[in-house]
Amino acid sequence: MNSEKNRLNAPNDCGRKEDLVAYLYDEAGVAERASFERHLDGCAACRNELAAFGRVRDELSAWQAPFAPRVEVALPRSRWDVLRELIGMFPVWVRGAALAGAAAAMLLVALSIAGARVSLKNGDFAISFGKAENAATGAPAVEAEQVERLVQNAIASERDRIERQYSVQLASFKDQLSAEHQAKLQAASADHQEKLKAVQAELKREIQRANRQNASIRSFFAMDDSNDPWGDVR
Amino acid sequence: MEISDDQIIERTLAGETDAFSLLVRRWERPIYGLSLRMLGRDEDARDVCQETFLAAFRNLRKFRGDAKFSSWLYRIALNACHSRLRKQNGLYEQSIDQEDDDGRKFELADTGAENLPDRLHRDRRAELVRKALQALPPEMRQVIVMKEYEELTFVEIAEVLQIPVSTVKSRVYTGLQQMRARLEKMRGAL
Questions:
Q1: Minimal-distance CA residue of chain B relative to A80
Q2: Tens digits of per-residue pLDDT, B62-93?
Q3: Which CATH class is domain B1-91?
Q4: Which of A75, A99, A138, A212 falls 20 to 30 Å from B86 in CA-CA distance?
Q5: Cβ contact (<8 Å) for A56 and B42?
């Protein structure tokens, strides 16, 4: 019995190991396959090894992984994404007012830096830069409350403009949201397809396993003697 | 028609970050399976899965498209597995004689309505396989896992590992030989 076991486990030195694994996994070309089958007829070591590897593959298939858990990957986000989300938390009118205020403040700062003067001449509003006009020209200095009114008007006008702009953006965001919803539906559908494929692959493996077992049994009975290749270790 | 990996990558690189989740959903199962068989532990496999997809996202611009995205992803996952195995050090090549007394959680498939004796028998077989597989040197283990469980072709495995196809076949052969010897020895010890 031991001598039989030793013979079955003896190293295979026939130099066709790569052909053997290609044949085992059904990845040999037509010519390669035919050539190896001819070799198998005369090589007990390869026949024995092929049958043994078939049994190892059966054993390996006993370890089935559980269904993969959902992977939640926290993808890093750009500063722009974070800022957009932060801004999105406020109502549209607050965002508009804040932006209008900021724009007006920037306008005033810019005018101040440029040395601008605001004046009313013949009922018209005017801004001038550079040196002050000669008093003799008769341009009256603008009153503080008039400047305030002008700035408030400018703010109101800017706020209206920004609100209109945000209405358009809001519509755009709605469209984007709808598109994302569609993408998620697509992903869920793809996921179901993957699971279906997995079940089909499992079925295929079962069929292949059954075929291999069948081949092992045939190969076993094709050997010179009928001893159990597992010998006394089973 | 299903959107291709390359199209999803293009969309992600164009700023549509959410598109990447399609790739995660598509590849999470194979990557988890590979990691579980390489490391033998569910929680390690989950961690490697997350690391893999995060690394892929961060390095997506480096993916040149001259290989398949899946090959690139498998390579990242295997690197993460090897890195984890190196950290585990003493467990890197676990002896098959060692009892599983190190508290490592062993994940099995849910076999549903299978009756108890059948299930126990199947679980026992699966445990033997896991032990025998974990005892293989990692370079053998990875080719056996990719071939047997991920059903990659020899050419695909060669692409993932960037080694010749003949080397892949040779490693699969040696891996199966070692698995055969270990399984026989473990059966003999029962």
A1: B15
A2: 887 888 999 999 999 999 999 999 887 655 44
A3: mainly alpha
A4: A75
A5: no
Q: Tell me which residue in A60, A66, A198 faces B110 most closely, judged by beta carbons.
A: A66
A65–B36 C-beta distance less than 8 A: yes
Burial category of B163 from C-beta neighbours within 10 Å (exposed 0-12, middle 13-18, buried 19 and up): middle
Task: Say if domain B115-190 classifies as CATH 1.10.3720.10.
Answer: no
The residue behind tokens 């990996």 is B5
**Single-letter code of the amino acid located at A78:** S
Say how many CA atoms lie within 13 Å of B186 toward its Cβ: 24
Contact A42, A71 (CB under 8 A): no
Extents of the domains making up chain B = 1-91, 115-190
Contact B28 A193 (CB under 8 A): no
Distance CA A85, CA A79 (A): 10
CB A210 within 8 A of CB A30: no
CA-to-CA distance for B167 and B112, rounded, in angstroms? 40
Q: Note whether A85 and A95 are within 8 A (CB).
A: no
How confident is the model over A188-224, as pLDDT tens digits?
888 888 888 888 888 888 888 888 888 877 777 775 4
